[in-house]
Amino acid sequence: MTRMFYKSFLFLYSCSLIFAVAGCRQAPSATLANPKGSVPRLEKIGNDICRDNLSGLMWQTGRSRKINDGQRAEQYAANLKTGGFNDWRLPTQGEFYTLHILFFLKKNGVCRMKHKGSYWSENPGLPPRSGRWASPYYTCGLNFDFEETKSGFVRAVRP
């Protein structure tokens, strides 16, 4: 009796796991991607810049080399002169999250950026942090955790 119960439990568990993973895999493309005719949030406005049409933020499309120090990451952004602008800065963690979600939802339009990996961000009153947004293995959809890392790239943003 115990052996039959164990086999039944294992079978049901395996089936539920397969359905859960299949549902997660389809969520971004089937339910969250751009509907036909919708306008992407990011618009390319130059060789080196994309603008978020909702927030008005301009993003550097390139990125720095890997940097392992927060002060150097801030200096890179402050010294950046691209697209005719010289007021670049590190994004806040929330702005960084929004950019991640735009690519996840495929709302980046024709804006192409290497968005995988760890990046530097900051929050007022706190030192810069390097990290990436990662989806926990047990969730589906738009649930991401910030995983701090020791080094990362800089993708600068302006006002």
Characteristic terms for this protein:
159 residues; alpha+beta; three-stranded antiparallel beta sheet; 3 helices; 33% helix
Which outline best applies?
Answer: globular
Mean pLDDT: 77
Rounded to an integer in angstroms, the radius of gyration calculated over CA atoms is 20 Å
Query: What is the multimeric organization of the chains shown?
Result: single chain
**Number of beta-strand segments:** 7
Biggest sheet layout: 4 strands, antiparallel
Order of strands, widest sheet:
1-2-3-7
Which consecutive residue ranges, at least 5 long each, have pLDDT under 50?
12-35
Helical/strand content category? alpha+beta
State the distance separating the first and last CA atoms: 67 Å
Discrete helix count: 3
What portion of residues is helical?
25-40%
